[in-house]
């Protein structure tokens, strides 16, 4: 059987979580990333360790069948590469920033100005859409320093916490796009390999659903059961089991992990006790 070739970033911000998600879906990799490629022991997959910025070209050429990559890089260099699934990590924005003291009211303020960036295609498209003419300076790193050294009037780069902008005396003025790590596929992928990719997608789906959810168990007096069940936003209806202690039940359900803190006080106020919240590895609906 042929193996699906999947690219991950060799080192950098995507590496750890890319390897973690492969591990979580049961794909264990034989050898370390000192090699350019490694085979999985128990699944028809070969992992290629590459530069994030190089991956779109490898996908286009069909050198790899799929990849875990930053969405922003795909948008910049992607062409017709398909996003199979968003992966929920390495979230960031690609934004325009100008010196804090600069006057900025609209995109028109950038007309005739110099913009430093590593994302020229993304920037040019945004400028064209807004009918703005600006001169692009393409630089590959430390973009935020460009205004301070007189190289540019504005920059376009990745913003996450905003601390790099802050340290360089810049302010974010426009968001061009939002990005996260994604699973992407080559336009040249074969049917046979697409079947393997679909299995991976199915497993990732169940891992991501599990990460977003919690398994909740609690004890409740029987005369409060009905009220407590209406507070719980469960998947279906919760499981209710009698406790050894007369007049009490144990209630089990799955909830969105972000909802839990909103409802815990309500649950307690309605008589819930012994509340346990447990992680979920996988969730297949
Ligand atoms: N500060 C950040 N916070 C969150 N995500 C980020 C941040 N910086 C980058 N990212 C995301 O992670 C991806 C990889 O960033 P990283 O800096 O590791 O690599 P890169 O500079 O694109 O490098 P290379 O091509 O060398 O692999 C980016 O494309 C972006 O999607
Ligand atoms: O808003 P923040 O949380 O400060 O993050 C944004 C910064 O993070 C990235 O750089 P990175 O640290 O990846 O360094 P690099 O330029 O060497 O890739 C990006 O290029 C920004 O400079
Ligand atoms: Mg970076």
From TrEMBL:
Q: Which residues form the signal peptide?
A: none
Alphabetical keyword list: Amino-acid biosynthesis, ATP-binding, Cytoplasm, Glycosyltransferase, Histidine biosynthesis, Magnesium, Metal-binding, Nucleotide-binding, Transferase
EC number(s) stated in the UniProt entry for this protein? 2.4.2.17
The keyword Zinc-finger is assigned to this record? no
Q: In which pathway does it act?
A: Amino-acid biosynthesis; L-histidine biosynthesis; L-histidine from 5-phospho-alpha-D-ribose 1-diphosphate: step 1/9
Q: Does the keyword Magnesium apply?
A: yes
> What cofactor(s) does the depicted protein rely on?
Mg(2+)
Give residue ranges for domain Histidine biosynthesis HisG C-terminal. Answer: 211-282
- Cite the PANTHER family for this sequence: ATP PHOSPHORIBOSYLTRANSFERASE, ATP PHOSPHORIBOSYLTRANSFERASE ATP-PRTASE
Q: Could you tell me what this protein does?
A: Catalyzes the condensation of ATP and 5-phosphoribose 1-diphosphate to form N'-(5'-phosphoribosyl)-ATP (PR-ATP). Has a crucial role in the pathway because the rate of histidine biosynthesis seems to be controlled primarily by regulation of HisG enzymatic activity.
Of which family is this protein a member?
A: Belongs to the ATP phosphoribosyltransferase family. Long subfamily.
Descriptive protein name: ATP phosphoribosyltransferase
| Lineage of the species this protein comes from | Bacteria, Pseudomonadati, Bacteroidota, Flavobacteriia, Flavobacteriales
